[in-house]
Amino acid sequence: MRTMPRMLLAVGLMLFASIAVAQVPTGDGTLDRPDGAKIHYQVSGHGQPMLLIHGYPLSGELFAKNRDALDDHYTVITLDQRGYGQSKAPDANATIQTYAKDALALLDKLQVDKAIIGGMSMGGPIALEMYREAPQRFAGLMLIDTTAKPASPPEAGLWNGMVTLIRTKGVEALPMALTKDMLTGQTRMNDMALVQTLKGIVLKASKNGALAGAKALANRPDSQPTLATIKIPTLIIVGVEDTIYPMDMAKAMQKAIPNAKLAMIPGAAHAAVIEKPDQVNQAILGWAQQVR
């Protein structure tokens, strides 16, 4: 007889948890930040919350094909970082810490206490900064075609050169400068529709957003010391042909993070999530079953 109250309590807690998940509002919305930035976000699906953070100079639209597969099992949250997609940036000044605080504020707005949080490219340093600020908000971590290293002098020079390019030629110059590294040569030759989709996402970036992001990447913090402190389930995804943050960097992060899993995506470059979405989705869904 004594077991009945415990059983009822367990059932009650399960029902409460499912109700809490169901309360995450779906659809599009805007997060207003104190400095005047307006952050567009989208929520779809049901289940455990999963926040996906895009790279430079993209938007939440990058994850459209991932969202369609993942939101059958998860409440998928995407955002456009300030100055990208449908979001607005009040100026051209932002840091990795700024973007991390925006993302944490979005979780607060949506009343999401804990989520699986994934960052692609620039989204990786953002997710790692979020972990330093609020590790309790993480059920799991995904690092996708990214790095924990600070920018080396050559890479910092590349991003500072991007600042000059944007100031002189505008955002219109970005697709030609970046698409060659985001997609494999095979894809650029044979899938013009995908090339145009990616270019369209890039061209939605504002000048303020593109300038701020390039400067943030050039001056990003060193997240390598953080890796050994990560005690949550972690998945690292890398396109086999990624030349920006290649497989060696992914393998180094896997080695540094206790019990991290590594998924290598053949036939994909830096934007594996959009170039090979089925393989990326399969990797995420197979791994995320262990995350509670």
Q: What structural keywords apply?
A:
292 residues, alpha/beta, Rossmann fold, 8-stranded mixed sheet, 13 helices, globular, disordered N terminus
Strand order of the largest sheet: 1-2-4-3-5-6-7-8
What is the H level of CATH, i.e. the homologous superfamily? Alpha/Beta hydrolase fold, catalytic domain
**What is the number of beta strands?**
8
**Rg computed from alpha carbons, rounded to a whole number of angstroms:** 19 Å
Q: CATH class, please?
A: Alpha Beta
Summarize the structure.
With 292 residues, the protein is an alpha/beta fold.
Q: What would you note in describing this structure?
A:
The chain has 13 helices and eight strands. With 292 residues, it is of the alpha/beta class. The chain has an eight-stranded mixed sheet, sandwiched between helices. Helix 5 (153-169) packs antiparallel against helix 9 (207-218). The model is unreliable at 1-22 (pLDDT under 50).
Fold blueprint:
Blueprint (H helix, E strand, L loop, with lengths): L2 H20 L4 E6 L5 E8 L2 E6 L10 H7 L3 E6 L16 H14 L5 E6 L2 H11 L4 E7 L8 H17 L4 H9 L2 H6 L1 H12 L3 H12 L5 H4 L6 E6 L7 H10 L4 E5 L6 H4 L1 H12 L4
Parallel strand pairs: 3-4, 3-5, 5-6, 6-7, 7-8
Antiparallel strand pairs: 1-2, 2-4
Helix pairs in contact: 2-13, 3-4, 5-9, 6-8
